[in-house]
# Entry
Amino acid sequence: MRLLLVRHAETANNRDGLVQGRADHPLTATGIAQAEALADRLRDLDLGAVYSSPLQRAMQTAAPIAATHGLPIQSEEALVEMDVGELDGLSSGEMRERYPEVLRAWAAGEAGTLRLPGGESLQDVQDRAGNLIDSLRQRHPDQTILCVTHSFVALCVLCRALALPVGRLRRLRQSVCGLSVIEFRAERVQIVRLNDTCHLIADGEWSLSIAGSAQTLLN
# Structure
């Protein structure tokens, strides 16, 4: 199986540097343009299936790709973003003020098993996403498929593919509307493309909006 792993396109929270978990935000106008640019890039690909997180920012990112290929979007709960609990919607300053101990533990290497206040741990995310990937390998052993998901989920999947402890997730980056490609074979798992954003520059007019400082603190 060849897995195209896509983080959703830009939302207002991405643009403004706010933590974004399960809150169901739509894409911005820039995000819609990013999703359409990715769909155009993947137009000639032989795509077997399109899966997406049920949150609307992911579904909106998947929509032009699925439409181009005449495929339905299959919603998968396991692709939903990490439940960040009480941190959802906070800025970096608000996180430092309200949850300094959480940020210290995260930076100290305890991120893998640290359960965010009212939310999940990265290990929880990796377990559910990993179980889904294993299932998709059984469903699509010889196909190329697309999964549109979120930052933490994508990074957890990439860590698993690299045999990298999930607590070291901060070594990787999956940008807004970034594309990574993982090939699953009987003898090995290989990442053949990592955080590719070439489709996000069009005529020099606009480019990728990188998530702001609040997301960087966690990621």
